[in-house]
Amino acid sequence: MLSKKTQYAFRALVHLAENYGKDPVKISTISIQQKIPLKFLEHILNDLKKADMLESKKGKGGGYNLKVSPKKLNLATVIRIINGPIALLPCVSLNFYEKCIDCDEKTCGMRKMMLIARDATLKVLEKKTLYDMMVE
Amino acid sequence: MLSKKTQYAFRALVHLAENYGKDPVKISTISIQQKIPLKFLEHILNDLKKADMLESKKGKGGGYNLKVSPKKLNLATVIRIINGPIALLPCVSLNFYEKCIDCDEKTCGMRKMMLIARDATLKVLEKKTLYDMMVE
DNA sequence: ATGTTATCCTACAATTTTAGTAGACTTTTA
DNA sequence: TAAAAGTCTACTAAAATTGTAGGATAACAT
């Protein structure tokens, strides 16, 4: 399951997606409208900024903006930044690979199955974007 | 990601799958051969038994057996017993559904996407079985 | 009957992760 | 230079994870 933090991140990002191309959006605005704890949201937006997904401006009139179009931000990328690996096992993760102990990766049956599962999940999450999450 | 407990469960189940139709297998045997902490493994096998996946026999000559053929035990079932929900959000879970706060399920875009992702993942995990994890 | 072998059950505990909070600091604008 | 924003570091409470300990119970052999 996705952490609460990740769900907050998605809600904040969709909010920003709806303001794409407009003036920066303040943390406090997102916090109130999306009902996300302010100080927690600070961390989240900062993480997303460090991952180059957002840009920010300080001072009056400042706030956050998406750095690229909502259609170019896929869901897998967001999940990886905030939530971590998408794969069900570390040894099948593309971005967070870790060797599993006591198993031979070439023959491990568990690994084979989790590879297939990962591919199926990823096919969706890498294709769908923030834009697909926006309600018209 | 699957918890370590779930990975242990799969390893134990594959071990039992390889002994399907044979004499019961002792916890201690599985513990040693699969390198799973004994007392932790006790809990795991007990959970699986309560979920009607295993049968057990006490006393000398006792141990555990799969209750049904490895081909009839799909991976989604195991994950749900030991790990919990497969869906990425509680509000899209078939077996662990929980209403999400502050969102209208009919229109929520995040929910729509996670439904599609869940279906893709589930299609694999419900089709693949313990048998598929066994190495010939 | 009784001892041995195995599972079953309840409780506890250390560690890690999650979900936040607090407060000072920096930058931008008016 | 004051106000309005984001930035940064540190801390904390609660929950989940990953186990351990020890006795109770059941089956079997002798």
List the defining traits of the structure above.
homodimer; 136 residues; mainly alpha; two-stranded antiparallel sheet; 6 helices; 2 strands; 48% helix; elongated; DNA-binding
**Average residue pLDDT of chain A:** 96
**Oligomerization:** homodimer
Sheet with the most strands of chain A? 2 strands, antiparallel
Give the fraction of residues assigned to helices of chain A: 40-55%
Compressed to H and E, one letter per element, the order of chain A equals HHHEEHHH
Rounded to the nearest angstrom, the radius of gyration of chain A is 17 Å
Distance between the termini of chain A: 27 Å
Number of strands of chain A: 2
Strand order of the largest sheet of chain A: 1-2
Shape descriptor of chain A: elongated
> Largest contact between protein chains?
A-B, 37 and 37 residues
What are the segments of chain A in which pLDDT stays under 50 over at least 5 consecutive residues? none
Percent in strands of chain A: 5-15%
**Number of H/I helices of chain A:** 6
Helix/strand class of chain A: mainly alpha
Concise account of the structure shown:
Two copies of one chain form a homodimer. The first copy, chain A, is mainly α and 136 residues long. Chain A is 48% helix and 6% strand.
Describe this structure in words.
2 copies of one chain form a homodimer. By secondary structure, chain A is mainly alpha-helical. In chain A, 48% of the residues lie in helices and 6% in strands. Chain A is built from 6 helices and 2 strands; from the N terminus they run αααββααα. Chain A has helices spanning 4-18, 27-34, 38-50, 75-82, 109-125, 130-133; strands at residues 54-57, 63-66. In chain A, strand 1 (54-57) and strand 2 (63-66) form a beta hairpin. In chain A, helix 1 crosses helix 3 (38-50) and helix 2 (27-34) crosses helix 3. Chain A is elongated. The first copy, chain A, starts with a helix and ends with a helix. Chain A binds chain B through residues 1-2, 7, 10-11, 14, 34-35, 75, 79, 84-85, 87-90, 100, 102, 107-110, 112-114, 116-117, 120-121, 123-125, 128, 132-135, and chain B through 1-2, 7, 10-11, 14, 34-35, 75, 79, 84-85, 87-90, 100, 102, 107-110, 112-114, 116-117, 120-121, 123-125, 128, 132-135. The structure holds a DNA duplex (30 and 30 nucleotides).
